[in-house]
Amino acid sequence: MSSRNILTALCALVLAVGLQAQDYPFLNREANVLHYDSNSAPMEFLFQKWQRVVTTGQGNLSIVHIGGSHVQAGTLPHRIRTNILTAYPTAVGGRGLIFPYSAAARCNNPADYKVHCAEKVLLTRNVHHQPEYPMGLCGISVTAQDVPTRIQILNADRQFDYAVSRIVVLGHSPSGIVPSISYNDYNTPPSYIDSANHRFVFNLRANVDSFDLILPCGPGQTFTLTGVYLNSRNHGITYNSIGVNGAAVPDYFKCALTSDLKLLRPDLVIFGIGINDAHGKEFDSVAFKNNYLRLCDSIRSVNPHCAFIFVSNNDSYRKTGRRRFSVNRNGLQVREVCYRLAQLTGGAVWDQFEVMGGLGSMEKWQKAKLAQADKVHFTRAGYQLVGDLFWQALSRELQKDWQPVGLKEPKATPVQPAGEPKVQPTTPAGERPLPRGLRRKSRHTNNPYNK
To answer: Which CATH class is domain 27-92+237-415?
Structure first.
């Protein structure tokens, strides 16, 4: 075993001891593994490339974690990110794709970076029935209008060096507005503009981890920001997290995905979408599966060898009255679909549903102060535990002897198997009864993009 694998094994051992030290008897620790076909070419290619990046210090590995409110909150993906980069401290890549959620009122932001914006901006999310402003892979956008707008983005994670000298601003402006970036008393225009892909690329004079994004709108002018990509020139692992409160799988079809996917070119996508698809009483598992396959198709069109890890839903409850809840049995169906998706795509399953204790376990997590009163979301400690458990399962696979030498591109695994007709994505009629009113209609008017 190489010294790098020994370090990973030691980190996993320390993590396992820490988890065992907690008295959580409801956890099913035996289920905490990645389930995948040993002959899966995408998974083998992923692990071989991972070993090449961390052992040689050459190349880049791009991970994309995509989901709903569990991901937007930031605690879960950042815990996984921190575990990975702690195990591989010489493989710290850039911070990757971020979105300034809290630039808009009443929109929560991950804690590892801070966002400030004094001006009012319009918020568009992919959960709106008819989004009025464009969105990219982030599934959310903010639109500045009529006045110059300054969005401050401040790094709040000092554990790793995320400083970059190349920033890509993703956005649209029918008014021809060109953003600028202010840092260290410099106000710089973009080095070049990629109009076809709606990108403004900034090559800075220095490495920065905090900066101001300036959108110089005047009366009648708008600029819609769809994301910010912090691109490190260092070789290593970049962990991108993308989440929208209340988002279900079909909501991502309202977004322009291809351009941003080409920018990130993911080697691994961790899918955590499904809690909102299955929250209502009616759940169509066939439509859910085919919607997921369509999303997988979009990703494999950019990187045919991208590996997928499907995370089954956490156990959850549905509110039936004042202080009354009933267990949501749809989680069992989602779990079955995840295994089917892994089989069809050559991917893997992390069975979160079973790991946390199965049907009804969310109530036990709540009593242990690991879940919130809505019996859907976790507390900060709960999200951290979920992140540690996921990393423990992934790190076990990375300890295996995946030889990076002689790495060859495998034959792409088709996402849509022969004999299975493509099914158009479906969305249940009416409003899904999501907790905390996360899904609502857009109220934007006078949208210049619709003219």
So the answer is: alpha beta
